[in-house]
Structures are given as C-alpha cells and as structure tokens.
Amino acid sequence: MLRLIDVSKTFNAGTVNEKVALNKLSLTLEEGDYVTVIGGNGAGKSTMLNAIAGTYPVDEGQILIDGVDVTKLPEYKRAKYLGRVFQDPMMGTAPTMQIDENLALAARRGQPRGLRWGVTNAEREEYRKQLQKLGLGLEGRLTSKAGLLSGGQRQALTLLMATMQRPKLLLLDEHTAALDPKTAMRVLEITDQIVTESNLTTLMITHNMKDAIAHGNRLIMMDAGRIILDISGEEKSKLTVPDLLKLFSEAAGGSDASDDKLLLS
Question: Which of 74, 127, 178, 232 has the most neighbouring CB atoms within 10 Å?
Fold first, then answer.
C-alpha cells in the first residue's frame, strides 16, 4: 500500500544550516499494516510523513501509494489517497462549523459542490451512528460548534473525518501528544477501533515508547533520517521499554539511548 524507495530530503542544502532529514529512506507497508514510528528529536519522523503527504517535495527517491507513483504530485492531488490527523487538535476541524457540518465536509470530499449545500436527515442519522461508536456523547451534540469541543473530542472527531472515505493510508502525526494522559489513552483506543474495523493501513508517529509497543502490528525506529529498527509480530508483542532502549543503542552504533532522547518529538 505504501512504498518509499531511497527517499532523501535535505533542508538548507549548501548552507551552514544544512540538515539531512531523510537519508535514502526505504519502507514498505502492506495493506492493513498498522505501524508505530518512534525516534529522537530530528530523526526524520515528521519529515517522512510530510514527504508522503506532499507537504515537502523530496530531493531523490520514489513514493508510491497503492502502486501509484505520487512522487511528483502536489499535496492537493495526493489528498484523495490520504487521511491525516495532526498533533494540534485545532487543525483537523472547522471550529465555527457544527459537528454535522464538519462530518458532511469530510464525507463529500472530492465531490462536486453546487449552490445547494446542507446536511440531510439521512446523513445526520448516519453521523449519529458513527459518533456513537466513539463513546464520547457527541451523537447528541450534532449542532454544537466544533470549536466548543475539548481537545480529545476534537481529535476523535478528526479521526472519524479522516477515515470516513477509507483512505489508502492514514497518517497520524503524534495525534495524542497535546492531550492529557487519560484523554490520550481514550483517543488511542478509538484509533485502534477505527483502524481495525476498516483494516486501514496506518503510520502513527508517537513520542511514547509504551504506546509504540502497545499499538499496531509493527514498530519502526528512526535515527538520522533512516530506519534503524523494524520489529513486528511476536517479537514486537514481547518488547519492553528497556528492550527497546537497548536495541536502539545497538542499532545506532552504541549511541546513548536515554528516555529523554527517544521521547522527544
């Protein structure tokens, strides 16, 4: 479903501020893979997601989504393949629009828009059913403005909006980092539920090693713009945080792998 082939990206090339963000990065995701991504500050995690989404053009390499080469496509043309949730809960919804209106925008993404725009009763009923699954009581607040919701409620709503049209690839860029621990746990539960029910191919960046171990079927660790660990299946299920720190140190050539370094985003 996703292939990155020798993808490189350097910022401020040829200057004193030159930064190699991606260094011939290669990665393959099969359909239904749910991959957690961890790494230290500047490891290239968010740059990788931005390169996939087309926010940053790459210097070298290829990006294929479901067999389609999107390397040269602008961001807006890639949007039909992707669902995305950002770290900031304010970014995924239109705050001055009602919950049902936000959901309608997501449901009609890519469709022609005429002068008549409104949410039908049938659509509202479907939205109630979808919101009820979140377990946050939003099904009874369809006409509330999205801007009045809590951060966790907005992230859950954004998740629902990002997956309504079953994207080829779901990108989660530290989408629980701005939430308190209890709310973050609930949003992760909702994430697992949505990803599993729809069998979505997912890349989830997290700053939390425990979450990286607990969620998904595969874990990759990045350092200096490349993947240094790729663990899945039974090996992943048996991992502990100390195991992960040791593996990082070995894979990074003996670098000091402190909790702080890995948890920084």
Answer: 127
pLDDT tens track, the chain, 265 positions: 999 999 999 999 989 999 999 999 999 999 999 999 999 888 999 999 999 999 999 999 999 999 999 999 999 999 999 999 999 988 889 999 999 999 998 888 766 555 456 788 899 999 999 999 899 999 999 999 999 999 999 999 999 999 998 999 999 999 999 999 999 999 999 999 999 999 999 999 998 999 999 999 999 999 999 999 999 999 998 999 998 888 888 877 765 545 445 544 3
Helix (H) or strand (E) run with residue 265 in it:
none
Domain ranges for the chain, please list them: 30-57+72-93+150-263, 94-109+121-148
Question: Six-digit token pair at 259?
Answer: 């909790």
Give the predicted TM-score (pTM) of the model.
Answer: 0.90
CA distance 21 to 30: 24
30-57+72-93+150-263: CATH topology: Rossmann fold (3.40.50)
